[in-house]
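Weekly structure sync, notes
Attendees: PL, DS, HV (note-taker this week)

Item 1: EAL domain-containing protein
DS walked through the input record. Source organism listed as Pseudoduganella flava. Sequence as pasted into the shared doc:
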Amino acid sequence: RAGTSMEPALLFFSEEMNQRAKEHLRIESELRDALANGELQLYYQPKVSLRSGRIVGAEALLRWRHPVRGLVSPGVFIPVAEETGLIMELGNWVVEEACRQIRAWQDANLVMPPIAVNLSARQFDRGLPQRMAEALQRHAVHPEQIMLEITESLLVRGAETVIAIMNELVAMGLALALDDFGTGYSSLAYLKKFPISTLKIDRAFVVGLPHEENDCAIARAIVMMAQQLRQEIVAEGVETMEQMTFLRELGCDQLQGYLFSQPVPAHDFERMLREGRRLALPAAN
Ligand code: C2E
Ligand code: MG
Ligand code: MG
Ligand code: MG
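Item 1 (cont.): predicted structure, written out as tokens:
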């Protein structure tokens, strides 16, 4: 004990940390149950081509239907899962479920665009290529059907091992996308060392388009660089026609955002595919 002269602020702070720790423990144990009880679900958010307006992919996003708390956001439970290591089991479940769903759709004669799955940095170990290969094989899913979304934090961590694992995944036929681009620390020069085929511009830079000059400059720079590196470029979080038009004129390849669709349950995404839903693009001039 530090004695009796402890600052009230410090006491308050440690009480708050204590609460946070308890909250984490609770989420962790409930997440274990969630996995066992089938409370987890994947939603799918379409990616559309800015040339054709067609659905050319989708991102699988994890949802947790808590029996009492209702829908819990991944923004809340993914960080806890990452801290506790539970992200491995969670991540394996996501890959398994995505493969199962792709197989079910293909069995139902749907022509499937690639489905992207998010990976946490902790999942990115030496065993990952093998785990991916086994999941693909179990469900007879072709590797081209899966894209892996990774974040910049991976690129700054022991680059040589990470590059080796990436190369293995790419050699298997899996494509890699760099998520939330622009929010991390990876320098542009650094980027070309990694076998990444797609860059996703973070929503933070899309939100201010086309009125915020800084956001326009950043979006422009990212698109130009991606073109130089021959990478596909996807804009995240596109909500307005104005943003869409601006991005399209910049030469951005794809859009993902509420303008076209929120993330939706599998059967709704299936319906969009069947109906051949398209984004209405302004007439080219
Ligand atoms: P992310 O990978 O960058 O996913 C995009 C997020 O932006 C999703 O939030 C999506 O619902 C949201 N979004 C898409 N379009 C719009 C838009 O037009 N406006 C707004 N306001 N938001 C939009 P979500 O589903 O809450 O996921 C948050 C984050 O949680 C994801 O960010 C990803 O980092 C993480 N996450 C989700 N599922 C998984 C998973 O299966 N594994 C891992 N490791 N992380 C996941
Ligand atoms: Mg993502
Ligand atoms: Mg993202
Ligand atoms: Mg993002």
